[in-house]
Specification:
single chain; alpha+beta; five-stranded antiparallel beta sheet; two-stranded antiparallel ribbon; 3 helices; 7 strands; binds ligand GNR; binds nickel (II) ion
């Protein structure tokens, strides 16, 4: 196991579009295990491979209170979205300290491969549905702040760049 470095907005690498995984082999399994360790250590409920600078369609999620129900989604595809939507307060490990409202579908159905390469169907609602939509955006190179107004986004960008400058000192 190894901890991976999480990219921070506005790193341009966060906008790369991930490619489908060709085979779920030992290299992908190692990535999944490192991503889970990184997500738990960072106290996140999800992590997309894009955030650790791996541009393949891999997501890990755990929305359980006990942090003992890892969910691995490889090559996820949304097969159904509810008509209903909801405004949810979101945060992101790549935009630390920033929380704001994003509109998401209330429920989604997703097909994906698990860490053994087996295909599965997930019917998600509530926080799991929000998290899946947030993570699938990452795989498309989209960060949640891009849903906010240009004014808010620019303020966040400036704040993040200032934080990173201070880190470097
Ligand atoms: O840890 C996370 N919490 C969260 C809260 C509301 C909506 C989405 C998320 S995902 C985030 C982890 C993360 O950045 N995943 O990409
Ligand atoms: Ni995120």
């Amino acid at each position: 196991m190894a901890l991976l470095t999480i990219l921070c907005y506005p790193d341009p690498k966060l906008h790369k579009v991930a490619k489908p995984v060709a085979v779920v082999d030992a290299v992908i399994q190692k990535l999944v295990s490192d991503m889970l360790e990184t997500m738990y250590e960072a106290k996140g409920i999800g992590l997309a491979a894009t955030q650790v600078d791996v541009h393949q369609r891999v997501i890990v999620i755990d929305t359980s209170e006990e942090r003992n129900q890892p969910l691995v989604l490889i090559n996820p595809e949304i097969t159904w979205k509810s008509e209903g939507t909801h405004l949810n307060e979101e945060g992101c490990l790549s935009v630390p300290g920033i929380y704001d409202g994003v509109v998401r579908h209330d429920a989604v159905h997703v097909t994906a491969l698990d860490e053994t390469g087996k295909s599965r169907v997930i019917e998600a609602q509530e926080i799991l549905a929000v998290c899946i939509q947030h993570e699938m955006d990452h795989l498309m190179g989209k960060v949640f702040v891009e849903y906010l107004s240009p004014l808010k986004r620019n303020r966040i960008k400036t704040k993040m760049l200032k934080m990173h400058r201070e880190d470097a000192r």
